[in-house]
Here is the input.
Amino acid sequence: MHTLTRKEKPKESHMRIELTVNGAEHTLDIEPRTTLLDCLRDHLGLTGAHAGCEHGVCGACTVLVDGVAVRSCLMFSPQAEGAAITTIEGVTPGPGELSPVQDAFCETHGMQCGYCTPAMVLVAHALLADNPEPTREQIVEAISGNICRCTGYAQIVEAIALAAERIRGANRPPELRK
Amino acid sequence: MLADDENARVIAGGQTLVPMMAMRLARPTQLIDITRIATLSYIRGDGDTVAIGATTRQCAVERDKLVATKLPLLAQAIPFIGYTATRARGTIGGSLANADPAAELSLIAVTLDATLSYRAGSKTADIPAQEFFVGPMTTALPSGACLTGVRFPVWPGKVGVGFHEVNARRSDFAFVSAAAQVELAGDGKAKRIAIGVGGIADCPFRLKSAEQQLRGTTLDPAKVNEAVRAALADVEALADLHASADYRRRVAATLAARAIADAHAHAQGKAQGKPHAH
Here is the structure.
């Protein structure tokens, strides 16, 4: 990982871009053909975004761009300039802590091999930010673009429902909590 | 830039072009990203049409109130395009310009007689959707031109819509899809009817003979069946690993009849089930 100073000029085949990832700003000299996925993994060391099919089918590379789940393998890094990018490394409230969604995934065993998990967690974050009270059908629809090859979908759906319930509960006064 | 380099490609959402590049099926020399051109992203009512800019994201159309009320057929078909995460980036113009035979947007554009606009150099021009799609992944867009927007006519009156498709997994490519829009007259007869099918041939097309036969009728299910079957009888359907030509023709007739039945019920004000893939 090499963070540049603004004085250096990029190589001719490269382009200078500024990315905001998990709240931190990075200036990078990068070939414009580098996908956002490769940029996150190889240039910023954020390996939580996984490379699965690399052509937009499996969903393992999902990250949030301005809060919305997108495929990072289908975006070129320069296209992400000016957006707030969130990777799985950015959803935890602090070092060693888990987000409510991650916590629910642990508790319901919403993962097996873990390959699809960061993407599933991010999709769940995007869903719950938009719809705090999703139905089972809406949860299934939200993760329908993400493939889990261990086929642990039942627990993933359970995890997202549990997280939704807890997040709603946390925002209510104690006497109204379930 | 486009005119100077025939291997340059316009990129917007990149949800089709980038996978094609990843598989080395497309090897453009240059990519021209048009997504930041703010004036190409809009949804606006324009009298009796709704105009949508080429770089408008599919997710924006999915959530748009004007589209939901004025273009119910488009609103119903949009959730079938890819997944939430691809609709977040994919654009209206990108899908139309890509002209996949199975694309939902192409089918809706053809069914509703949309008009597409493009710009080549400093010239702008319009082209009807039925002339725009000329083959699989092939359009009548001149070399060096860039699609700028699409206008869908709004049908007034008692309008109902129906949309159905068959695929292996929800949101995968449709093997066959069918769309119908009906306007009922005061006497309950079909004043206007448009029926389109997609995925079955090189480009989506209308079942014009069935439209003619069914206009002015009460859309009796037996007559509808007969008319769509007859309209599809001579169609040269695609055959591939997923589905034979016979299967595609048969399913197209069934889905078209269902879409018309849904549109009819919808126009009569009957509650409609949630659209779903089969």
In short: Chain B touches chain A at residues 14-15, 18-19, 22-23, 31, 33, 35, 59, 82-86, 88-89, 170-171 (CB under 8 Å). The radius of gyration of chain B is 18 Å.
